[in-house]
Specification:
By secondary structure, the chain is an alpha/beta fold. Helix content is about 45%, strand content about 15%. α3 packs parallel to α4.
């Protein structure tokens, strides 16, 4: 049985929960972070997980001191993680004609961008001193180009990609790897409300397998599923006039209820 430790945010549902189960199955101890700690505890019990191999930390990733304190507590209680996965995310449609959607945009950036950096922060010095570890940012194919109705989510995930790229360069000589995981459409509560087509929709368990393998190999950047990687490369080089023609009028992601 491995003594390695995986620290995962967003563990109460979706991708974070699927990754938690995959790492547990691989023999890891778990440090699981969520706002709804009871949901994580209930899920772990329902899966028959050994509670001696996991700890649950309550934190709001969008609040810097909250998520930093969770990381610091993990260091005290469980030691330095081998893998830190910033998986907590927030996604909803926005229409900036509405004043309240500016607040939604601020919450999106606080969770997806500052929250990712704050998730990594408590562990970087310790990992560098040890000379090993992996910091994993979970982005999205929606970070490749800006989609209608995604005026907050798309730029936030583009920011995750760029942030991880910057950090990868900073830590290259340290022995600490920085991995960017770029999910396509994965069947989770986050995508189940989408009203538009989702090509290559993948079950969360299959995503977790592919992400685990990419992180274990130390891949710097991986789009999952691979078919969406082909789509992402195509979108990167598509001229603006063609991109606009292709996506103008596409159904928008619904706004948050007000």
């Amino acid at each position: 049985m491995s003594t390695s430790l995986a620290y995962i945010t967003g563990a109460s549902s979706g991708l974070g929960q699927a990754l938690a189960l995959r790492y547990y199955q691989a023999g890891y101890r778990l440090a699981l972070v969520a706002r709804r700690t009871e949901a994580v505890t209930d899920w772990a019990r329902s899966q028959g997980l050994d509670t001696n191999r996991l700890a649950v930390y309550g934190a709001d990733v969008s609040v810097i001191d909250s998520i930093v304190q969770a990381g610091q507590q993990c260091l005290v209680d469980q030691g330095i993680p081998d893998v830190v996965i910033a998986c907590a995310g927030f996604s909803t449609g926005v229409d900036i004609r509405y004043r309240e959607d500016l607040d939604v945009m601020a919450r999106t950036f606080a969770t997806n961008n500052v929250g990712t950096a704050a998730t990594f922060h408590p562990f970087i010095a310790a990992m560098v001193a040890r000379g090993t570890g992996a910091l994993v940012g979970v982005a999205s194919v929606h970070g490749i180009r800006g989609m209608p109705g995604h005026g907050a989510y798309c730029p936030s995930k583009a920011g995750v990609i760029s942030f991880c790229e910057s950090l990868r360069g900073e830590l290259k000589a340290s022995g600490v790897k920085v991995v960017t995981i770029v999910p396509g459409y994965i069947d989770t509560p986050l995508t189940q409300g989408n009203t538009y087509s989702m090509p290559f929709l993948m079950p969360a368990s299959q995503f977790a397998d592919a992400a685990y393998n990419a992180i274990d190999r130390g891949s710097s950047y991986r789009v999952i599923p691979w078919q969406m990687g082909v789509v992402a490369k195509f979108l990167r080089v598509l001229p603006n006039w063609a991109f606009d023609k292709l996506f103008a009028g596409r159904p928008r992601k619904p706004r948050s209820p007000t």
